[in-house]
Amino acid sequence: MRGVSDPDGTVPALDDEDGVVAAYRQHGAEVYRFALRGLADPGAAQDVTQETFVKAWRSGHRFDPETASLRVWLFGIARNTMIDHLRARRARPWQSSLADAPTIEASAGSVEDHADTVLDGWLVEEGMRRLAPHHREALVQTHLLGRPYDEVAAELSIPVGTLRSRVFYAMRALRSAMDEMGVSL
């Protein structure tokens, strides 16, 4: 996905109001739906969506279309903003008493959603693409496929210690790639 532009072929510049408006037009509805599924509260979802685009505008200089698409970058910001919102909600439990009990019970079941899993998968996939092939291979074989180190090392004709080293440095590089994409682990 390196260098992928948005659906209309352009990547708006986020350093001015017109660029943020264009980004909102392209992705605002998706970000809102994502936040609504995660929070089950339309007001909170609106707040998270607005804060996502404010954060994107403030840190627009950090967006690099060669690193990730604007959509992936915005969803990473939205995910982190939702986490911050949920932490703040837990820190102020008295606010939950402002809603009536049936509303709280009805929304409690809808909070669990696969959107986070899908987004996390996209982000990890994008991060894995940035790894050197031998690092990617080491991670896939040992962590994703769960194969024993000695079996993978024998297959690759390398010592087990070298494989362990590759896995270590692959994890470090993956964390760095995720940081570059604005994703906190």
Automatic annotation (TrEMBL):
It comes from the Bacteria. Residues 24-90 form the RNA polymerase sigma-70 region domain. The keyword Methyltransferase does not apply. This is Sigma-70 family RNA polymerase sigma factor. Residues 125-174 form the RNA polymerase sigma factor 70 region 4 type domain. InterPro entries: RNA_pol_sigma-70-like, RNA_pol_sigma-70_dom, RNA_pol_sigma70_r2, RNA_pol_sigma70_r4_t2, RNA_pol_sigma_r2, RNA_pol_sigma_r3/r4-like, WH-like_DNA-bd_sf. Pfam families: Sigma70_r2, Sigma70_r4_2. Keywords: DNA-binding, Sigma factor, Transcription, Transcription regulation. Belongs to the sigma-70 factor family. ECF subfamily.
